[in-house]
Every structure is written in structure tokens, then in C-alpha cells.
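Reopening this ticket.

The earlier resolution said the output was attached, but the attachment link was broken on my side. Pasting everything inline this time so it's all in one place.
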Amino acid sequence: MKKIVCFLLALLLFTPLLTACGGGSSNNIQFWVYGSSDQLDMYTRVTDAFNDSYGKDHGIKVDISQKPNGSYGQTVQVSSTSSSGPDVFLIAEAEFKSWIIGQYFCPIQEYVDKVTDISLGDIMPTTVNRLRYNVETNTSHVDDPLYGLPLDTQPTALYYNRTMFEKAGIIEISVDENNLDAWNAGEIADNNGKMKSDFPALNGITVPKKGYYRSVNPYYYDGDRTRGWIKPDFENGEVAVFNNRIAMNWDEVEDLAMLFSGRYNPKAGEENKADPVTEFGTQYGYFTEWWFNYGWSVGGDCLNDLTGSGEWNFSLLDPNPNYVVMDGTFTGRTGTVYNEGETISFIDKMNILSVDGKDEVLVPDDYGDYYHADKSLGKAGIWEGIQAGLDAGVLSQLPSTRDAFSRYLKLGAKSNAVIDGENGLDISPNPSTFSARTSMNYFFSGNLAILAQSSVYMADLSEEAKARGFSWDVAPLVVYKEYEDPSDPDCDTVKAQGKQAGHSNSLSMVVRTGSEKKDDAVRFMMWMASEEGQRIRASIGFFPNQKSLLPEVEFKKGVAPGNVRVFSEALEFQGPGDWWYMPDHVWVEKWCVDLNAEVRNGLMTYEEWYSPAIKRTNEWLQQYKKYSR
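Inline output:
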């Protein structure tokens, strides 16, 4: 009996704690979150600020409740149609479309339209439009239903170790391309407050409009004309300049990365080791987990609709050249008008025939190329109008999507590996390198000089930099850019250039389908996404959705980046990754699992991978025919 009484007393005492953990009063808005300790702290601060301001004035109280990272999705799904559970929860892009189809959250446009006293300000359209979705057409147009609002958008840029660059002898400047002439003339300071005269080594040198400039022996790749890598000879007057306001091209980032890669620049005594390090302590110069800004920069993608009507095809290995408008406008095969700087779409560059008034469906082969539907006509090839555009000087030719993807794969492939007929570069670690440590840990530990990563790591890195005694900054992702004479270090006349490209992640707020408080839930979401809510995020080192708030980003615990606006600029063109394209991402797994686990780790050859990957993926894509992006 005593044991029973004690148990009942303990249960009564513990009940309030369970209620508090469960989300508080049933009259309040329930907001379920998950994430790192820094993210959870940020979500709590912004929610508390809402409760103390707009919420208090309008009789809305929000209870925030942390859920385990590993079971967050399952916990939300179980409560989706019930009268209890979260009113607002977080959704990642990879699950966004499948959860809409599963009706776990609902469209919110009608509730947003009712709110007249909260402005969403200058949120980038790219962060909002990806939250629109038409289930029937698989589109995300500006007039498609709105299902969420962005809370934690995370654009991508290059992180680089400034201290390491200085130690290597690289001069760092921060000058926008349109200001470089004035800076070279000594008329203005750069964004770091540095005049050209502050760098005696640049006396008599006009720094060209490049992301990375070497005054002697620049490395470049161009088939038979490739010049191999030669270590900069700084002791005898060679100069290297890194400009964090101009995107490097593929050659330049490889040139810079080789300086910090043990395979090319080993420290004395390290030459014959399996994993040599440089005199700077680095093993590798550059790492990016994603092919996006390589393939997208030249106008390619991993998925194409062969007709515009849902005939999906795995196109990452398309060997046909891509094209960009360099001057004026160009009208494609379908009548689409392209402006300067835009790349031509797949169906507008290909020689697709009209059959009974409709476009034929091209037949992909197991190499990545395309036949006409009537195979007796051979390969589809490039539409004749493209050649006319080239002849008129309106268009310039870019590498194929396959070439861009191969260039990406070569970064981490060993020098004796073969990627589509060419050897690897061995300047990047492979995925297996990060089995015990993250890529960001590899970066702030000094093993890696340049890392493509999202803005979510800024706050953590600022603290690590302060604790470890180094400075860092960010720069734009690399872009395809071809100079008239790549062998001339001073030539910055561009022959052909791809578009700026890259991906951003987005963690968004949505309203649970079974919520009975949708009006107040949407008010809370709008406030969180508004300038008021995002200002609090900026004040603790998180990147805000509002472009106007960028100057207010503060790093109170560490070393801040000076070029942080790169992230804001990136939001103007960065979109979601391939996991977002379809209602699920199984089709991605059909080609990327073997690629990331086997090919990139040297356990499978490129030749063993590509043909089965193409066939497997295209077979799976057949089930998506009813959808059209």
C-alpha cells in the first residue's frame, strides 16, 4: 500500500512537467521544433519575442516544444489529422512535396491574405516560390498554392581560411568587378579598407578581373592545351591575388586548391606518404559536396522533361554542348525568348522533330545521349537555330552537362582514377573522409583551405575561429568562365561565361492539417518570417531571409566574416536541390547512392557506374509522367 501511495504521489508531482513538455495550454499555438542547440536557442528567442510583442497585443500565445531530431518527422505525422499536436511545425525541402501529397499540412494563402498588419518585406522570391506547389502539375509557379513560409533559409558560398591564405603568400582583396579599375588606379579602398598602395608587391601590376590571379604560370584546363600546375614562386616576384568579390572559374579554384593539397605541394619529408600534408598543415585545398553549381552554371541539370509534358529523363550525363546568350536576345525552338546571361533549355537546344503536330519524345541511350524516336534517323543532335545564333554572335557555347559533372567528380578522384577518360585531380577529400568528422570540422581544424557550405555554419565557425586563432571569410561559388587566352595571366576578356548557380537549403514553417487555430498560426508564421522576427535571427549570427537586414548580422561570440553579403546575393539565384524536384526523392537514390558511396570513394569506376545508373533512374522516372514541373 505504501508503495502504491508513493507512486501516486510521484505521478501527481510529475504530471505538470509532462504537460509543460507536451506544449502547454491547449488554447495556445503549439510550435514544434528540432535542431542543434544553437538553432533551438534561436527558435526560442524569436518565439519569446513574438509572445512579448505582436502576440501579446493580439491575444496570441505560442508554446515552443523541442522534439528529438531523429523522430521529429514521425512524431508530427502521427498527429497530423488529430485535434492535438503542433499547429506550426518545421519541414525540410526533401519532404516538402511528399508531405503535401500526404496532407500533413495545408495551403495557407487564404489565411495570409487576411493579415494586413504584418509585412513580409523583401524576402527573396526564390525562398518563397519553392514553397508553392500544384499537386496535379508538380509545378511551383507564382500562382500555385502557397504551403509555407521560410524561417531558416541557408544559402551556400565558399568559406576560406584568411590566415592560411596570408601564410601562403596570397594577397587578399575585396573589390567588386565594376570598381576594380578605380581600385587599380588608387582612387578607392576595397571593402576591407585597403588601398592598392597597401600592397607593395602590386606596384606596377594591374590586377585583372579574376577571382584568383597569378602573375606567372596560371594553371588552366583546355584539353590538349592544358598547362600543368606549377607552384607559385613568390620568392622571385610572382604575385597571387585572391578577390572575394569575383567568382573564381573552374581553373582558378583548382589552381588555388593545388597550393593547399599535399598531393601537389607536399611538405618536405611528406612526398611519399599516402596522405601528404602541405607546409601549411592542409591535406586538401577545396571541397564541395554538390555538383549543382557546376552543372547548373552551364545550363544543365540532372533531370529534364523531354517534351514539357512530363517525359522525365535523367540528364546529368547529357554529352551535348550547352549555350548561353552573350549579347541581345535569342528565340529558342519552342518560341521561348532568352535574355543576355540566360542559358538555353534542353528542349530548346535539341533537334526535336514535330510528329503529327507534337514534339517527338527523344529516346535516351545508356551513355546519356539521345536518339530520335525513329532510331533510323540517328542521334538528335543540336537544333540548327543554335548554330545560327552562334554565327550571329548572339550565343556562346558552354561545356556539356556531362563535362561539367565530370569536372566536379575529378576534384576528389585520385590521380590514377579515370573519370570519363581523364584522370582525377586529388585536391578534394572523398565522402569517406567525413565518416568520423564533418566537412566543417575538417575546415576549422586546418586540414582544408576552401569549403563550399551553407550559411547555417556561420555562428559556429565564428566561435571556432576565435578559439583557434584564425580569421575567415566567404566568397562566391565558382562559375564557368572561359577567357580569350587562358595562358595569359593578365587576360580577363571573357569568351564564354555560364550563369551564377548554386543551391540553398530551406527549413520552413507550415500549418498542420488538423490544426483548429490556423488563423493565429499563420499570423505567428508571418511574424517569424517578417523583418521583426528575422532581425532577432540576425542579431545572434543567423542569416536573415530579409535582404535589408544583412548589415545587422552580428557575431557576438567570435570572428565575423567581412563579405557576408555574398550569402544575400546568392539568394537571388540559388534554388532547391534535386531532392525537391519530385514528390519523393527515390529517383535521386537510384543514381546517387552508388555514386557517393562507391565511385567517389574509389570503390567503383566511373565506367561501371554510369550505364546502370542511367537505365535504373530512367526506369524509375516513368512513374512520374503525370507530373510536369
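Reporter confirms the inline version is readable. The longest strand covers residues 448-454. The first helix runs from residue 2 to 22.
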